[in-house]
């Protein structure tokens, strides 16, 4: 029966592929696999995971090969004991910034080991709708990007654009290519005026004016306006800094950007711009001096560094399950405050000698946390701009604090509502009190018990709930996990390789 089922699925995939006019090799390229694997699938000789079926369905735009309808869910059986070795994947946030920055270059950009996540998939869909050619080159997730001579902004894929917050970063590169253009509101969420205004303030010195009407950012550019003095960012935001950097890269003068973010994704963007021939001084500081070019037309190859937020996720997984694993390729310079805080809480770990990432700049280590008896820190835990504790790493301290002895105060001062989602840990047995929209008080130690929870709509709190479920006794269900796939590639499958028991399913 299994062979007959696989055979029928294989026939459906073959027919859908031919209907799209694709060869087996072209489908393999879309899936990041080999032609021989596609051949086995179509002949019914290859077992198929739900994840692969979903990817095939997306590649062929065919609901025929989807299993059931609606969102994907995770079933987690615990408590889990993890073991083994896992390598950190490249940075999600650097990857999306580099996809936007590829619009600066009229030549071919090849990005190495790109995180193959939903956020990246949506951005690729937007780029392709503009006429950009993209191609996955191999199973290592190397991605080739070739822009057209002229972008077709009238054809932008609005549905894909509204599902990614990163489309706001098209403003910086596009203002040099078009005098007038429109972008859909970013992110499928309400980005209030306070959030968008720092971007517009950073780009006005380049002549950009944006009016918001009918669900779009309507942009126009006055070429007579150029930066006449240093640009002082009103918010030291990562994407704001990246937008200013990309605008400066095609301005054939020298632009000084002050109060700039020096975070990991900004540094990767700076290193990429340097490869394009742009002069960027002050990388890693809050003052960036950019000498741009009137035109960029080079074939460039760049490898973004590893993701410190994924590294923190894996470290938290080891801590809450009291496991010893080795996490390879940890970008240590963006994890030092987190590790110092965990050391204060009692975490023991081994760390290797430092070595360089493939970008030639970022320092990496291999990290092996040991099962440790943790206690609450004496002071509150709060994020700060780099080199402080990363804002995206703060939520992981909620589940870590839940297994430590004593009370831990977390202050998430940047986001108005994200702390609220951390109270979902109470459904698993945690003691998490919301003091106000920015602060939670976590008391441990906690003995987690399995339950069913709908995935919070925020990426990092969603993963926090997943990690708590790993440590929970019994079976848990985490429903509607698209938000996790936005930021992590095959997280459930990779945790299973370490010994977790996570099953992906859909309601049929």
UniProtKB/TrEMBL annotation:
EC annotation from Swiss-Prot or TrEMBL: 2.5.1.7
Localisation per UniProt entry: Cytoplasm
A molecular function GO annotation: UDP-N-acetylglucosamine 1-carboxyvinyltransferase activity
One Pfam family it belongs to: HTH_3
Pathway in which the depicted protein is active: Cell wall biogenesis; peptidoglycan biosynthesis
All copies of domain HTH cro/C1-type, residue ranges: 13-67
PANTHER family for the chain: UDP-N-ACETYLGLUCOSAMINE 1-CARBOXYVINYLTRANSFERASE
Family: Belongs to the EPSP synthase family. MurA subfamily.
Protein name: UDP-N-acetylglucosamine 1-carboxyvinyltransferase
């Amino acid at each position: 029966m299994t062979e007959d089922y696989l055979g029928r699925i294989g026939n459906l995939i073959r027919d859908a592929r031919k209907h799209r006019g694709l060869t087996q090799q072209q489908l393999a390229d879309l899936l990041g696999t080999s032609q021989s694997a596609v051949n086995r699938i179509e002949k019914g000789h290859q077992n198929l995971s739900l994840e692969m079926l979903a990817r095939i369905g997306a590649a062929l735009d065919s609901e025929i090969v989807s299993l059931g309808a609606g969102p994907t869910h995770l079933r987690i059986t615990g408590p889990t004991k993890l073991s083994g070795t896992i390598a950190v994947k490249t940075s999600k946030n650097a990857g999306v910034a580099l996809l936007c920055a590829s619009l600066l270059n009229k030549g071919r950009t090849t990005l190495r080991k790109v995180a193959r996540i939903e956020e990246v998939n949506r951005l690729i869909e937007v780029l392709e709708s503009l006429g950009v050619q993209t191609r996955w080159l191999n199973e290592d997730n190397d991605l080739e990007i070739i822009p057209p001579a002229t972008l077709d902004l009238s054809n932008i894929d609005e549905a894909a654009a509204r599902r990614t917050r990163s489309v706001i970063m098209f403003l910086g590169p596009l203002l040099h290519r078009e005098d007038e253009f429109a972008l859909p509101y970013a992110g499928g969420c309400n980005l209030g005026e306070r959030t968008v205004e720092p971007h517009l303030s950073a780009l006005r010195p380049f002549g950009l004016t944006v009016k918001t009407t009918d669900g779009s950012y309507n942009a126009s550019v006055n070429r007579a306006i150029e930066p006449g003095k240093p640009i002082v960012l009103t918010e030291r935001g990562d994407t704001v800094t990246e937008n200013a950097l990309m605008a400066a890269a095609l301005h054939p003068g020298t632009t000084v950007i002050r109060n700039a973010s020096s975070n990991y994704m900004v540094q990767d963007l700076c290193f990429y711009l340097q490869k394009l021939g742009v002069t960027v001084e002050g990388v890693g500081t809050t003052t960036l001096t950019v000498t741009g070019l009137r035109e960029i037309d080079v074939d460039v190859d760049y490898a973004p560094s590893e993701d410190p937020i994924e590294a923190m996720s894996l470290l938290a997984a080891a801590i809450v399950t009291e496991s010893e694993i080795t996490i390879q390729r940890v970008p240590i310079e963006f994890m030092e405050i987190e590790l110092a805080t965990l050391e204060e809480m009692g975490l023991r770990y081994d760390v290797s000698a430092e070595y360089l990432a493939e970008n030639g700049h970022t320092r990496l280590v291999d990290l092996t946390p040991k099962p440790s008896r943790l206690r609450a820190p004496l002071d509150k835990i709060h994020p700060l701009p780099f080199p402080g504790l990363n804002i995206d790493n703060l939520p992981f301290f909620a589940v870590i604090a839940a297994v430590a002895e004593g009370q831990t105060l977390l202050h998430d001062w940047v986001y108005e509502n994200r702390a609220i989602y951390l109270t979902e840990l109470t459904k698993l047995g945690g003691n998490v009190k919301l003091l106000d929209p920015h602060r939670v008080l976590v008391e441990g130690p906690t003995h987690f018990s399995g339950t069913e929870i709908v995935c919070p709509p925020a990426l990092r709190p969603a993963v926090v709930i997943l990690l708590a479920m790993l440590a929970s006794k019994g079976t848990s269900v985490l429903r509607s996990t698209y938000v996790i796939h936005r930021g992590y590639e095959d997280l459930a499958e990779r945790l299973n390789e370490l010994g977790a028991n996570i099953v992906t399913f859909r309601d049929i």
